[in-house]
Each structure stands twice: as C-alpha cells, then as structure tokens.
Automatic annotation (TrEMBL):
PANTHER family: APICAL ENDOSOMAL GLYCOPROTEIN PRECURSOR, MAM DOMAIN-CONTAINING PROTEIN. It comes from Chionis minor. PROSITE patterns: MAM_2 (PS50060). This is MALR1 protein. Residues 9-138 form the MAM domain. The gene is Malrd1_2. GO terms for cellular component: membrane. Coiled coil: none annotated.
Length: 138
C-alpha cells in the first residue's frame, strides 16, 4: 500500500505488475508466480491463498542480486507522508532484502531498511516511512 496523504494504492500482482512498479524496471531474475507454480515454497501468499500472485526470484538468481524500482514519487511533507507496507518471504540464509531510497538530485541509493531473514520460510510484514523534500524512487 503506497500511502500519500489520504490516497492509498494497493499493490498486488494479480493481473500484472502494479502501478508503483514499472514493467521496464523488472530486472531479469524476478518472476510473477503463485504457490501452485511448482517452484517450491512459498506455497501461498501472506494471506494463505495458494492462487494469489507474488514476485519471486528465480532459482538461477540465488547467487546474485536483482532490483525492483518504483515509479517516481512526489516530495513528502507534513500533509503528504509516504508509508510503504510490504509482505516478504526469505527462504535462504544467504539472502538479504534491502530497501533503498534514491532522491532525484543524487546518483547514489541510500539503504533505508534490510532483513537477512533469521526467521525463515514464513511471511513477514514491514512498514517504512519515507521523508524526502524532493522527488524520489524506492
């Protein structure tokens, strides 16, 4: 859910990538699948639905990294906060999921959250709040 003031954009992958994630930004390695795909766990989404879709890294990508980028978000202020809540699953000890923030005046991506999955093979949820005085991507 991408929250900007009162508007809340729910992002699932039932028909395709949601509006927040560009199709062009889906790097090789990410696949849209569900629990019935025969690709191993997870066998359902975070709500226990085995036919609901989520994004997953393909098994060939286990040793390298792949990125998802959001669309450009507008600057935040006291009225327009940005909160992103997401569900995630980490299935191996070597995997790390990171969330980065790239402001439009900067070339670098600042790491604002990460989890290397000590509690594995279960869905977890996290909410991050973003403050930026300029346009940004996550």
């Amino acid at each position: 859910c991408f929250n900007s003031g009162s508007s809340c954009e729910k992002c699932d992958f039932e028909s395709d990538l949601c509006e927040a994630l560009h199709e062009l930004n889906l790097q090789p390695g990410w696949i849209r699948r569900n629990g019935r795909s025969g690709m191993g766990p997870p066998y359902s989404d975070h709500s226990g639905n085995d036919s609901a879709y989520f994004l997953s890294l393909s098994s060939e990508m286990r040793s390298s990294s792949a990125t998802l980028r959001t669309k450009v978000f507008l600057p935040t202020d006291e009225e327009h906060i940005c909160q992103i809540t997401f569900h995630y699953w980490i299935s191996q000890t070597s995997g790390t999921l990171m969330v980065g923030l790239q402001k439009h005046s900067e070339d670098t991506i600042t790491n604002i959250w990460q989890d290397s999955g000590e509690l594995q093979n279960q869905w977890k949820a996290n909410t991050i709040t973003i403050n930026s005085t300029e346009k940004y991507e996550v």
